[in-house]
Design brief:
It holds the Pfam family Glyoxalase. This is VOC family protein. InterPro entries: Fosfomycin_Res_Enzymes, Glyas_Bleomycin-R_OHBP_Dase, Glyas_Fos-R_dOase_dom, VOC_core, YwkD-like_dom. The protein has 128 residues and is α/β, with parallel strands linked by helices. It has 2 domains: 1-62, 2,3-Dihydroxybiphenyl 1,2-Dioxygenase, domain 1 (Roll); 77-128, 2,3-Dihydroxybiphenyl 1,2-Dioxygenase, domain 1 (Roll). It is 16% helix and 38% strand. The protein contains 2 helices and 8 strands. Strand 7 and strand 8 form a beta hairpin. It is globular and about 50 Å long. It starts with 8 loop residues before the first strand and ends with a strand.
Length: 128
């Protein structure tokens, strides 16, 4: 088997409109398609990051809470690459998003930080 790249990441949210606003307006992801599935009472929003389809945002009635933050088994966090982390952090704080202090990756000497989506999913910004 030869994997080529990650095709997408699926995220289940508890408040679809709030999460849609967060990922589209605040993070600037581009909606590709939006589908409502009546039989599941569920939305699915396909989002692009810099022209590449990468995120599926789902809503389901009463999804269970994440067991712990951030060390639960499974997906730990998603990370977005940015060119200027200070500008990105400034944008987020202007939107009243709480952002951890910027740190330096001791292995790469690159800057990074974390914040959370409306459901507490950890999101990393990593400067390249």
């Amino acid at each position: 088997m030869k994997l080529k790249k990650i095709h997408h990441i699926a995220i289940i949210c508890s408040d679809y409109e709030k999460s849609k606003d967060f990922y589209v307006r605040i993070l600037g992801l581009t909606p590709k398609s939006e589908t409502y599935r009546n039989e599941r009472d569920s939305y699915k929003l396909d989002l692009e990051v810099n022209g590449q389809y990468q995120i599926e945002l789902f809503s389901f009635p009463n999804p269970p809470k994440r067991p712990s933050y951030p060390e639960a088994a499974g997906l730990r966090h998603i990370a977005f690459e940015v060119e200027n982390i200070e500008e990105a952090v400034h944008h987020l704080t202007e939107q009243q998003i709480e952002v951890e202090p910027i740190r330096i990756d001791t292995h790469t000497n690159k800057k990074f930080t974390f914040f959370s989506d409306p459901d507490g999913l950890p999101i990393e910004l990593y400067e390249v």
